[in-house]
What does this fold into?
Amino acid sequence: MLIDDQLTKKNYQSIVVLTGAGISAESGINTFRAADGLWENHRIEDVASPQGFYVNPDLVYRFYNMRRQDLLKAHIQPNPAHIALGDFERKFNGELLLVTQNIDDLHERGGSGNLIHMHGELLKMRCQNSGEVFITRENFDQTTVCECCRQSGNLRPHVVWFGEMPLQMDVIYQTLAQCDLFISIGTSGNVYPAAGFVEQARLAGADTVEINLEPSAVNSYFDWHIQGKAGELVPDFLTQLLVAEST
Ligand code: OAD
It folds into this structure.
């Protein structure tokens, strides 16, 4: 892989990595914006908005139960990009924050620890009464009794839907404000606020790199563009950053 010499010779101290559905594509999880604009055959607003949940909760529960069952199938495993990010976190001497828009757990399984799921997590459910979050690998729906309030009908997927505030934005913006390298992997740059992170990083004076199958909607904000599959490009790219750090 050809990476600009300027980039891999720098000794970065604080790196923010943003990932999107593209990093999990090679693990067998479909991206959101396929050519038909549907998410697993559903209109995104039907299954990923508070209005959709209000109108047809059964559909929404069924939808996320199926996504969770799919995620837990034996053949869905972290790919070399997830694993390389986990390795990089262990070996890099500076600060690394990984922010993912993905609701799967493949980064955790790839070894990443300092990780924010800004759009929530498929393996969690939340009580709408208390806000308490519970880990689940099982199906749940309107009939499931909540552990905290002992009532049914209060649990919802711990997933951020359109029109809702993504999670831990204060930490993300604070870290972006002092990072010196921002790397975006496998995201189309269509959904804000994540699509705006590159501008925040630039304001902080950071170098910016996009690794994606195709130019994203915010491609012009990046200093470097590396086009291709994350599973093939990310391991080599991160190795080069580590080599630069040690020389
Ligand atoms: P998208 O589906 O919009 O974009 C995925 C991007 O990954 C596209 O630009 C693809 O070209 C690229 N891609 C596909 N395969 C790849 C591969 N093997 N290697 C590298 N890149 C690849 O997904 P996101 O940008 O993550 O939000 O979508 C952002 C948000 O929109 C999601 O988190 C979700 C969705 O609606 C919520 O649900 C709130």
About this structure: The first strand starts at residue 14 and ends at 19. The chain has a mean pLDDT of 94. The two ends are 20 Å apart (CA to CA). The CA atoms of residues 99 and 116 lie 5 Å apart.
